[in-house]
Design brief:
- With 339 residues, the chain is mainly α.
- Among the domains are: 1-61 and 112-159, no CATH class; 288-339, no CATH class.
- 53% of the residues lie in helices and 0% in strands.
- It has helices spanning 2-7, 50-66, 105-108, 113-126, 132-144, 151-159, 168-181, 188-201, 207-219, 226-237, 244-255, 262-268, 279-284, 290-294, 297-304, 309-320, 326-338.
- The protein is elongated.
- The chain starts with a helix and ends with a helix.
Length: 339
């Protein structure tokens, strides 16, 4: 009796109705079907794991780099403290203005919308299982493909309690992505904790890393000039290894904080040829750039050709604060009238 009750208990296959054609009930329409057993648990959302997410992020980044595109760590983000126009994205006067790198249609079609939805959900649900380096790579993969469905805010909630786990590479990648993706001045405490972590990873930074660090910290809304004092000596150790463009970027990175260290700028200026102009950064550091521009008059005039209107306005602002020849100022005014 005990065995019979157990076999006929609710939910047991024996207790389920059978498709008997002679019965006058809906059960007569049931037909037994063999269905294949799903074995692709690796790709099922509820079985997401950190190893698969890590490999996917690396694959996406490698696919991006294989197209010949470069990661731009120095990008401008709108800031009320800068004198540049808010539409500025290229901060260097000696760079040619060009359109932003965008993916071709073929590249965008390489991953479907469904892939990004699942990838995003898996990341959000599994973020507590990931290391900070994996989180940095995944955020970078979303950023370079211009995808945003809430991953960045979720990442901040997880990272703000794990900032001390960041190494140099992860810190730079996370700072680069989040300074571009988060609304400025909405995560002040988080970026302040990032800045407090800098002394712990300073030993593994090089000259370009220091420039990227200063640049993206400022983009995030962090403007404490003390960070320049922290990284200054480290930057000076690598100053001989930097080219003209890097030195021009460094002037801008330090200058945005209003960092006035004449020892720094006096060592940068002689290393810049007359084909490169670093006056923007020096001007932001409240340093007189009259002599610098006067020595590079030809470079200055050539840089005005084809320059966008915002760049011409910047030059007009700089020249009005110098003792440069009036012909240079009139030259800028003429270009402004023609644009």
């Amino acid at each position: 009796m005990f065995i019979t009750r157990r076999l006929l208990g609710p939910g047991h296959p024996v207790s389920n109705p059978l498709p008997v054609p002679t019965l006058d009930s809906p059960n007569r329409y049931y037909r037994f079907k063999l269905r294949p057993i799903r074995k692709d648990y690796w790709n099922v959302l509820c079985f997401a794991n950190s190893e698969k997410l890590r490999k996917t992020s690396i694959e996406l980044i490698n696919n991006y780099l294989s197209t010949g595109k470069q990661l731009k760590y120095l990008e401008y983000k709108e800031s009320s403290n800068d004198f540049m126009n808010k539409n500025d994205k290229i901060m260097f006067p000696d760079e040619s203005s060009g359109s932003e790198d965008k993916f071709s249609k073929e590249t965008l079609k390489s991953k479907t919308k469904g892939f990004w939805i699942v990838y995003s959900k898996r990341f959000k649900e599994s973020i507590h299982l990931l290391s900070v380096s994996d989180i940095a790579n995944i955020l970078k993969s979303f950023h370079i493909y211009n995808k945003d469905s809430g991953e960045y805010v979720v990442a901040v909630l997880e990272l703000q309690r794990r900032v001390k786990e960041l190494d140099a590479k992860s810190l730079l990648d996370i700072l680069w992505v989040l300074s571009r993706r988060l609304k400025q001045n909405t995560q002040k405490e988080f970026f302040k904790s990032i800045a407090n972590q800098v002394p712990n990873v300073l030993y593994s930074l090089n000259g370009n890393d220091v420039v990227n660090l200063l640049w993206n910290l400022y983009n995030s809304g962090y403007t404490d000039v003390e960070i320049c004092n922290i990284v200054y000596l480290k930057f000076m150790d690598y100053i001989d290894e930097l080219n003209e463009q890097d030195l021009s970027s460094a002037c801008m990175a330090f200058g945005r904080y209003g960092y006035r260290n004449m020892d720094l700028y006096s060592k940068i200026e002689p290393r810049i040829s007359k084909n490169c102009n670093a006056s923007w950064g020096l001007f932001m550091a409240s340093i007189d750039v009259t002599e610098l521009i006067s020595e590079r008059t030809e470079t200055f005039i050539n840089s005005l050709e084809g320059s966008p209107r915002w760049k011409l306005k910047v030059w007009k602002t700089i020249l009005n604060s110098t003792n440069c020849h009036e012909d240079l100022k009139r030259n800028v005014d003429e270009h402004l009238k023609n644009t």
